[in-house]
Amino acid sequence: MIMLQMLYKKIKKNFWMVLCLIIGASMAVSLVSSVPIYTKGILTRVLSTDLKKMQYEDKVFPGAYCITKNMENIKKDDIKESYDTINPVIESKIIPDIGLPVLSKKVIFKTADDLNIVNTHDDVVRNMRVEGISDFENHIEIINGKSLKDSSSESGVYNALISQRTAKNMDLYTGKTYELQCEDNPKLTKIKVVGIYKYKDENDPYWQLEDWEHSDSFIINFDDFNNKFIKNESFSLSEITWYTAFDYSKMNLNNVKAIKSAYEKQASLINDKYDAAASFLVSDKLDDYINKESKLQNILMIFQVPIIIMVIFYMIMISTLIIDRDKNEIAILKSRGADKKQILKIYLCESLFVSLIALIIGPPFGMFCCKVMGIPSGFLKFNDRLPITVSLTKTEYLYSIIILIIFIAAMMIPALNASKVSIVEYKQSKVRKSAKPLWQRFYLDIAFLLVSLYGMNNYFGRQNIVQITGVDSSSIPIDPIIYLIFSLFVLSLGMLFLRLYPHIINIIFHIGRKRWSPSSYISLNNVKRSDGKNQFIMIFLIFTISIGLFSISSAGTINNDLENNIKYMCGADVKLKSFWTPINAKTAESKKVPLIYVEPDYKIYKELKGVKSSCKVFSSKDGVININSRDIGKTFVMGINPYEFGKTAWFPQNLLYPSFNYYLNLLSQSKSNVLISNNLMESNDVKVGDLVYIKWGNSRMIPCVVAGSINYWPTFNPSEYLSSDFVVGNLDYFQYRMPLEPYEVWLKLKDANSLNLLYKDIKDKNLEFQYIDSMEDKITKEKSDPTLQGINGTLTLSFIATLIITAIGFLIYWILSIKARVLQFGILRAMGMSLKKLIKVLINEQILISGVSILMGFIIGNISVKIFSPLVNIMADKSEQILPSGIIPISNTESINMGIGILSMILIGLLILSRYVSKIKIDQALKLGED
Q: For residue 284, is it within any domain?
């Protein structure tokens, strides 16, 4: 009880400090808990997008679950017993074990499809089947005739419904009775068509089994089929199908593995015990997702490592500051008889109190932030952000508890050390020069730097092996240690700078010792004599800013490279091809002569609205090049007009040496000049000036002169084996030597708004093309990939978290630091220093500590980004990377915005600190000194 009273008085006395601590701890917990929340939300969206694509693009309902039992070899008398044996198991165990809500279900009894309609007085053969389907009439609409329940039955006649397709294909009519006969049994069965139906709702999951479901079938009452038809008629039952439509939208990260496992067990049980087959259409998709989930989760967690490291760093920094501030109070308590256990209990209770509040506030706030942020359309792009499904589970609270345990340990360890010091020893330590920090004494900064350099060396060795062997980098497991090496590298450089910084300040102080103004003198002296007290905030700022820069660089590299690869493979803003009609189509095939085409009017392309330039591009993938009398097939041949092509095609000038235009000029020097791929030149010992022959299709050989070799060319992918041989020449020369063949037209648009203008003009002029491919449309489609969106979202979350935790850590540090220096400020005011000069002292200290840290954060961050930028290629799964990463520089807009944000944070901090200092009363400060 006494302990709780002491804790209450301590919290009341230091209310604002405890409040700052609660805010900081809550933010730390919310940031850490947001990592698994956001990861699960992204992975759930990946699954949801894949399943929706399966339904709406592949036209397959993902929740369709079927169990089919073949009944052909089962005796008539055993059919009902067999059905009654398996049906309760499916209803009570199989379906519930999947663990998903049921949207719809049905049981289908089906005869073989060899039942013939006889006695129709025509020669048409009509093979039909009879089916009984449970809950059938609740999902159909009668468009002609009556429903089964509204139709009167005749003795010996079964009423049936047929679909519109069946009525049309089999020429059947309502109100007419048909006789069915099986080939091996002369007995006749009478079926009367009482109505024609259509689906009440084509999107109803009840109908998602297959496209041609129940076609060419008489559908009779389910109970009649089960109780009468099977017993009385001679037809054999073909199969029984139990169909269940599960609500696939309820599949998520938490249950997908359990669903897959349940299905696999059921499939084995159904096959072994009941001789039936189970089919779950989404099963293969779940396999793909589980593999994708594992890899994507690894990638996202690697990108989120810095958040966790920053939070741990932050908790240690704040805890150390609090204990440093309380050392005097601890020494006083010890001098008044408090033992070590009692002191530790006070801080344990305080840290538990703060932790409990943080645990209550943190995870829900983290979930709220993730929900508000959603999934951005790109890095820091929230205009078209997508909703994200979020929830709190045990995992989030486990993360929170772990970070709070670290916080409690960070509070208790310094408190334990402080509780060993008597008041005399504490007073002596204040005037005694402090020993160097542990990491400086043991040269941990040098050790960390050497370890990170060793890790970097191994990493680049791995990259070289991948390049030499040609192994797909996406197939190599991602090692999270790589990101830890990056973090260690940043940390070691920051610590190395802090080792040198006091000496730099000392030199500056002595250079202008006699000329410094009082405020500058005090600022330099305070920083010089801080004995490492400012190192926590400095290394914290350096680390967080470096991590923020890496998030910016990673997002920029991933998005920039994706966009550049799409642009490169598209070749131009728009590609289209007209309809080319041969004038000798009938005779060409019989006489085996080339097709003769009439060229469409090329002027129409140049006159389209929004078009800046255009060019003709002929290409053939089945080209053949003859080198030294040896034919090399599967060569990609392209014919262009160099001048028009250079104005229209998209291509980075620095991708080829000395430039793209240089090679276009080589083609222009002679009509017969061609450029060939490096692979073709090196593997066949071809030299510039050599004569080669080219052909494609049924054409004859064309003599050409090799003018140079290239690694890259618009639309040419050098990494593909089949297209590794490439030839580009002059289209005019090809058309002169060969019959005219269809070509593409490439268009360059005037600006970003021209595409819609182009589409509208094409529509207004009623122009028709075989196809139109737009670069912008492909980029939009690729950027809507949920995996890429997830990476962008994670990097956005990481970047925002960096700014938030930097701002909070910065403010809390300086507030606590100034509270510890109230006596110093009071003395300075008492000696006559004005408030204006005192605030100038704060500004100078901000520049020397925070300003320098931020500057070094940008410097170290940029160094680290340049060294570790290839790391993104592995983490982002760039298996389809074509162009070298970073071939086009990334915009510095986000880095500038980050700098502006950090400067704003410092200004706000200064305003808060200045207001706080201005409220310090001299008499209170002096009284504090007397105490």
A: no
Produce one character per residue of 619-658: b if its CB has 16 or more CB atoms within 10 Å, e if not.
bbeebbbbbeeeebeebbbbbbbbebbbebbbbbeebbee
> Which domain-ending residue is among 235, 254, 280?
235
Query: What's the Cα-to-Cα distance from 597 to each of 531, 580, 583, 585, 919, rounded to whole Å?
Result: 86, 7, 6, 9, 90
Do the beta carbons of residue 38 and residue 370 sit within 8 Å?
Answer: yes
The position carrying tokens 């053969």 is: 125
- The bridge status of strand 702-710 relative to strand 673-677 is parallel
Residues 169 and 302 in one domain: no
Looking at 736, 768, 800, the residue that finishes a domain is 768
Would you say the C-alpha torsion 631, 637, 641, 647 has a positive or negative sign? negative
Q: Residues 151, 217: one domain? A: yes
- Residues 789 and 557: their CA atoms lie apart, in Å, by 14
Q: Identify whether the C-beta of residue 260 lies closer than 8 Å to the C-beta of residue 286.
A: yes
| 763/767 Cα distance (integer angstroms) | 6
By CB neighbour count within 10 A (0-12 exposed, 13-18 middle, 19+ buried), where does 480 fall? middle
Whether 444 and 539 map to the same domain: the answer is: yes
Same domain, 540 and 426: yes
Statement to judge: residues 596 and 472 lie in one domain = no
Measure the N-to-C terminal CA separation of the chain; round to a whole number of Å: 28
Contacts of 2 (CB under 8 A, 6+ apart): none
Residue 180 has pLDDT above 80, yes or no: yes
Q: Do the domain assignments include residue 276?
A: no
Q: Is the peptide bond before 658 cis (omega within 30 degrees of 0)?
A: yes
Q: Give me 74's structure tokens.
A: 């089962």
In contact, 544 and 310? CB cutoff 8 Å: yes
Whether 441 and 540 map to the same domain: the answer is yes
Smallest Cα–Cα separation from 738: which of 699, 704, 691, 693? 699
Q: Are residues 651 and 549 part of one domain?
A: no
DSSP code for 766: T
Residue 54 resides in a domain: no
Give the H/E segment covering residue 220: strand 217-220
Of 51, 803, 751, which Cα lies nearest the Cα of 369?
A: 803
The single residue listed with the structure tokens 């310090």 is 920
The alpha helices in 638-687, defined as continuous H runs, are: 642-648, 660-669, 678-683
User: Whole-model pTM?
Assistant: 0.71
As for how many domains the chain has, the answer is 3
CA-wise closest residue to 299 among 732, 875, 930: 875
Is residue 74 included in any domain, yes or no? no
Taking alpha carbons only, the member of 366, 687, 321 closest to residue 530 is 321
Residue with tokens 């938030």: 804
Give the mean pLDDT of the chain. 81
Question: Distances from the Cα of 409 to the Cαs of 216, 321, 487, 823, in angstroms?
Answer: 74, 14, 23, 30
Q: Tell me: cis bond preceding 477? Omega within 30 of 0 counts.
A: no
Pairing outcome for strands 102-111 and 237-246: antiparallel
Q: 350 with 475, same domain?
A: yes
Within 259-320, strands assigned E span: 277-280
Q: Tell me the pLDDT tens digit for each residue of 72-111.
A: 878 777 888 888 888 899 988 999 999 899 999 899 998 8
Strands 115-118 and 127-133: antiparallel
Q: How far is CA 490 from CA 504, 860, 880, in A?
A: 21, 7, 30
Local confidence band at 370 (pLDDT 50, 70, 90 cut-offs): confident
**Residue 180: domain span:** 113-235
pLDDT tens for each residue of 504-545? 988 998 888 888 888 888 888 888 877 666 888 888 888 888
